[in-house]
Amino acid sequence: MPNHNESISVVVREFHVNKDTERVVTLENTCEVGPTNKLSLYTDMLGDPICRLRNSPSFLMLVAEIGEEIVGMIRGCIKTVACGKSLSRSKAALTKQIPLYTKLAYILGLRVSPNQRRMGIGLKLVKKMEAWFKDNGAEYSYMATESENLASVKLFTEKCGYLKFRTPSILVNPVYAHRTKVSRNVTIIPLTPSDAVILYRNRFSTIEFFPRDIDSVLNNKLSLGTFLAVPCGSYSVENWPGPVRFLLGPPCSWAVLSVWNSKEVFKLEVRGASRVKRAFAKTTRVLDRAFPWLKMPSVPDLFRPFGFHFLYGLGGEGPKVVKMVRALCGFAHNIAMEYGCGVVATEVASCEPLRLGIPHWKMLSCAEDLWCIKRLVEDYSNDSVGDWTKSVPGISIFVDPRDV
């Protein structure tokens, strides 16, 4: 039998703000993120379809059109990140590890109208975006999806040539109506963006996906600050010596993280929740308001658009580093409460030891977020790296908040 889809002309072109915004928002409203028959996330872009791209060094949004109807969209961005490490050849630092960088592209926000699926529109959008990636020098392309989102996984792995690459965990914790108590044995020091850049470059620049333009991230208006946790009595805000001296003789244990205000970019909404789950969440809030001194854990109203803060750049060392991370997460929770956020979220490698200090609710989190990667070019920018798609995962990854 003839395929009637072959007679339908699908045009893929660049997104135009004035012409396409209203139709793109309409399409986004019809699309759910996540596997069917389960809870799904709806993204409220606050009227700005490229809100999740604006802070990237280079980005593009494409739409697929049939006649006057927009039936699909895709977003992509490019940046330079660490993909490996090597030993310095400098005589002064023979044992120092230096990062090896590659130009990496990221696909996000692929949507196809429910009424126009299985017509090859998603594949056409991906191919067009990959062509732009290659034209702009990207060596690899990757995307992220839930491992249970079989339709998305099948499209990228079976039709687009992507490989399953990393399986980090998204850890989400509700923001309660009361402040979280931070251990008195831990001192938290706010760092200036310039101090944070020095600390990150010296300690974390060889971690996979570490952005070479970390200074742009930390100086962005959405980055609410970087915070260092140290044992009480070791350092204070008043006697902070600066990152260089700190790194020459750090305390036995310390930890660091940064906070990104995603609430100003877009909001989320949980859809598909049963009446029982909604009632349970409401009950926890009622009890929390009625008995605030008990500081009961309550579920915010996530069934209407809510904002969140994203924690990134988590790292540290020492035997009490987990305790330090827990204190930082409590501190970040209190910041989020002041901003009126619904949740605090972060993403870490599946084998990240620091995750033991990150409070989260299993029902809100994703144990396995699947990242798939594809090599776009034949040659490599650095022969020492080889094929990144075949590399062994490290214990940590750096999740750029601009990609969230």
Written account of the structure:
The chain has a seven-stranded mixed β-sheet, sandwiched between helices. A six-stranded mixed β-sheet has the order 8-14-13-11-10-9. It has two domains: 4-164, Aminopeptidase (3-Layer(aba) Sandwich); 172-357, 3-Layer(aba) Sandwich (Aminopeptidase). With 404 residues, the chain is α+β, with helices and mostly antiparallel strands. The chain is globular, with a radius of gyration of 22 Å. It has helices spanning 17-30, 121-135, 150-159, 193-203, 214-218, 243-248, 275-290, 321-338, and strands at residues 11-14, 40-44, 58-66, 69-87, 97-112, 140-146, 163-166, 169-174, 186-191, 223-231, 254-261, 267-271, 308-317, 343-348, 369-375. 24% of the residues lie in helices and 30% in strands. Strand 5 (97-112), helix 2 and strand 6 form a beta-alpha-beta unit. It contains eight helices and 15 strands.
In short:
This protein has 404 residues and is an alpha+beta fold.
Question: Within the largest sheet, what's the order of strands?
Answer: 1-3-4-5-6-15-7
Counting DSSP H or I runs of 4 or more residues, the number of helices is 8
Return Rg in Å: 22 Å
Number of strands: 15
CATH architecture field of the largest domain: 3-Layer(aba) Sandwich
Q: What is the CATH topology descriptor of the largest domain?
A: Aminopeptidase
Helix content: 10-25%
Residue runs with pLDDT of under 50 for 5 or more positions? none
SSE series: EHEEEEHEHEEEHHEHEEHEHEE
Task: Give the CATH level 1 class of the largest domain.
Answer: Alpha Beta
**Biggest sheet details:** 7 strands, mixed
Provide mean pLDDT, rounded. 91
SS strand fraction:
25-35%
